[in-house]
Write a structure and sequence with these properties.
Elements: E1 2-3, E2 6-7, H1 10-21, H2 27-37, H3 40-61, H4 66-81
Antiparallel strand pairs: 1-2
């Protein structure tokens, strides 16, 4: 599996496929460990930042007084900082 430069091994891919068909008690932890090993968390954070900047730019482009946009910016900052 390849996610824009982040690669899993054949073993990891097989593990993921097995986990998707089975339902072990620690399934979530196993999947998260594989994702972390493949740097999927880094990839997701890069996408999060990209989409946040795009959204904020679109917000700036709207013809509304800047002070009226501030609550939306604060909400976006709050939501984007959540960890789980």
């Amino acid at each position: 599996m390849v996610l824009r430069g982040y690669v899993s091994t054949a073993e990891q891919k097989a593990q993921l496929q097995h986990l998707m068909q089975d339902n072990p008690a620690d399934k979530v932890q196993q999947v998260l460990a594989i994702f972390k090993d493949c740097n999927v968390d880094q990839w997701a954070n890069e996408l999060k930042e990209k989409y946040l900047q795009t959204a904020l730019q679109h917000l700036e482009d709207i013809a509304v007084v800047s002070t009226r946009k501030q609550p939306l910016k604060e909400l976006a900052d709050f939501l984007i900082q959540r960890e789980h």
